Amino acid sequence: MRISHGLKKRTCIFLMTATYLFIPSAVAFADDRLTLIGRVSDSAGKPVEHATVMVYHAGVKKGYSTYCPSCYVDCGKRTITDNQGMFTFKDLSPDLWFQLLVAGEGYEPAFVNKVDPSSGAPITATLVHRKSVNDSERVFRGRVVDSHGSAVRDAVVQLVGALFDTKTGASRYGSLPGLDPIAISNKGGTFEIAYSQSAEKIQGLPPAVARVPVRILVSIEARRMAPSFAVISAGPERHTLTITEGATVRGRLVQDGKPVSDAEVGLIARNRGGFGKNLELVGQPYDELRIGTQQDGTFAVTNVPAPVDWYIYGKMESLATRGATGAVECATKKDQGIVDVGDLQIKPAHRLRGRVVLSDGKPIPDGMRVTITSERAWDDQTAMLPPDGRFEFLGLAVANYSVFASVKGYTVAKTPISVERKRADGSVETTTYAPGVAPPFSVDHDIEEFLITLHPENEASQ
């Protein structure tokens, strides 16, 4: 197969996000993962107790990658400081640097950038006391409670988007200068997100639109609770955000009738959707939930939102040499319900061999990468590229995939692609993909010659 047009990485649902609270158990292929120790203090050097520290973003330490910085497995892990302000993260990738986000009641959230656990040195984070925002129309107030109305402490309330005009629906998703990216609920379940920046032109918004957000969309995550979303209006009113326990999806991973332990299983909504006008949810844009299998092959994903239709699957990187499960459909119907998917079967899978070539004939620089992503499951594999650009991916179930290569200074040709597909009734559907975006391709057999041609960035747009 020859592909020399637009190849693009999987687009993240969130411009600014964290993987939901569900933390995967360690799996067998993570034996060399690292531990990070740190301390949080205030501007006077005193330890800050009960601050929340989150792995927010990550990036490769060697070479180059265009992979989504919040999509790495470690992103979203979080912990709480002890009475000495100390915290610990375990099982972090040795190949990545990390950006940490630190938040505590009464303090402004703070980032710690380019943290490298392999250095072995404890890291330090300093929190500054929050300045009061006197204008109530610049503060978004809420209280997180469970289904019984009891306060939920330490819920992570994270900004997803902001609405500036209810008439036009003018909104912006992702981070916004001056607007707190995150808040943590206190003992009473309350929290505040403040907009402290003076009104000014916000990039991407019409000139006539107000410069202060009137509503925000947030995600809410808490231990032993299902992730959720909510819209909060600015003003003196404190909005009640109710979160629930969610459902449980359980099953067993097997191959040839035998249990498979120490592998990883993923769960993603079938209609992932995203966000629309006026902070509207489109579909169920939850992040992937992951869990490791036990010695008997069993797994149980708890605190799963309901009612939602899901795909469940064995993760490619943990099963590649064994085979693949493909994506199996299941559905959660109600909170506290149990969905038993039975045996998730690992079956023989396909491979894809290919090569990344540069149009100017140069060898691939050291540290470059190529990634394959599944269209249905939220799953991928990444391989380092040698100078000749050759790569191989194993464990591919019958499905549609996309491949993108990350080579610094090079990109795909920015020309639109039109693809014809036959419908079940025999009619033909034509889909045109934007410049730089490659259509997914089907894998139903081994592929031996998959060619990706990249061009120097100054030539690709010509």
Short description:
This protein is mainly β. It is built from two helices and 36 strands.
Strand and helix map with partners:
Elements: E1 2-3, E2 34-42, E3 52-60, E4 78-80, E5 86-92, E6 96-103, E7 110-115, E8 123-127, E9 139-145, E10 156-163, E11 171-173, E12 182-184, E13 190-194, E14 215-221, E15 228-233, E16 238-242, E17 247-255, E18 258-259, E19 264-269, E20 274-275, E21 281-282, E22 289-292, E23 298-304, E24 308-314, H1 316-319, E25 328-332, E26 338-345, E27 350-358, E28 369-374, E29 380-384, E30 390-396, E31 399-406, E32 410-411, E33 417-422, E34 428-433, E35 441-443, E36 447-456, H2 457-460
Parallel strand pairs: 1-36, 2-8, 9-16, 17-26, 27-36
Antiparallel strand pairs: 2-5, 3-4, 3-6, 6-7, 9-13, 10-11, 10-12, 10-14, 14-15, 17-18, 17-23, 19-22, 19-24, 20-21, 24-25, 27-30, 28-29, 28-31, 31-35, 32-36, 33-34
Number of helices: 2
Output the CATH class name of the largest domain: Mainly Beta
Q: For the CA atoms, what is the radius of gyration? A: 23 Å
Oligomer: single chain
Low-confidence stretches: 1-30
Number of strands: 36
- Helix coverage percent: under 10%
Which structural class should the secondary elements be placed in?
mainly beta
Per CATH, the superfamily of the largest domain is Immunoglobulins
What's the CATH architecture of the largest domain? Sandwich
Rounded mean pLDDT is 86
- Beta-strand content estimate: 35-45%
CATH topology of the largest domain: Immunoglobulin-like
Task: Please give the alpha-carbon distance between the first and last residues.
Answer: 25 Å
Q: What is the global morphology?
A: globular
Largest sheet: 5 strands, mixed
**Total of domains:** 4
